[in-house]
């Protein structure tokens, strides 16, 4: 099963194979790995609804926290083109996640516009993060 986390959409799946869209240069993707679930949030800076990006992010992070329902987060991943964001931006995002552990940052500043090459592959208590086919994180618990 493959779940695509679309712009401004929060989805979850049983620990399966999850493709996290990371192609838009202004995007930010936050993914929480729970014991039996992966919850992802993808948000882009530019939107048709004309609501300011910081305001939209706060509202979406509230929904993200609602999806987690206070459960223990085993791992938190923040995927963003960090060169396009203010310094320490990822720290601000991490602080918005209730009970967040230290985040693993994946900087996609140099990714192509059609990136889509970041994968969270999970099965049987293992999460593996690949960027462009190269394993950057492999976590077991």
Textual characterization of the structure:
With 141 residues, this protein is an alpha+beta fold. It contains 2 helices and 10 strands; from the N terminus they run E-E-E-E-E-H-E-H-E-E-E-E. It has a 5-stranded mixed sheet with strand order 1-3-8-9-10, with no helix packed on it. Strands 2-5-4-6-7 form a 5-stranded mixed sheet, with helices on one face. The two termini are 22 Å apart. Mean pLDDT is 73; it is low at 1-8.
Structural class: alpha+beta
List how many beta strands DSSP finds: 10
Percent of sequence in beta strands: 35-45%
The number of domains: 1
Give the % helix.
10-25%
SSE layout and pairing:
Elements: E1 2-5, E2 9-13, E3 17-20, E4 28-33, E5 38-43, H1 53-68, E6 75-80, H2 89-96, E7 103-107, E8 118-123, E9 126-131, E10 134-140
Parallel strand pairs: 1-3, 6-7
Antiparallel strand pairs: 2-5, 3-8, 4-5, 4-6, 8-9, 9-10
Keywords:
single chain; 141 residues; alpha+beta; 60s Ribosomal Protein L30, Chain: A; five-stranded mixed beta sheet; 2 helices; 10 strands
């Amino acid at each position: 099963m493959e779940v695509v986390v679309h712009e401004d959409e929060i989805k979850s799946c049983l620990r399966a194979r999850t493709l996290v869209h990371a192609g838009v240069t202004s995007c930010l993707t936050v993914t929480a790995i729970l014991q039996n679930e992966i919850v992802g949030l993808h948000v882009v800076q530019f939107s048709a609804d004309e609501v300011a990006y910081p305001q939209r992010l706060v509202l979406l992070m509230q929904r993200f926290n609602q999806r987690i329902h206070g459960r223990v987060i085993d791992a938190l991943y923040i995927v963003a083109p960090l060169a396009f964001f203010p310094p320490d931006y990822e720290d601000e995002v991490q602080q918005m996640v209730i009970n967040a552990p230290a985040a693993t940052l994946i900087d996609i500043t140099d990714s192509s516009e059609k990136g889509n090459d970041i994968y969270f592959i999970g099965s049987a208590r293992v999460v593996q993060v690949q960027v462009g086919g190269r394993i950057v994180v492999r976590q077991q618990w």
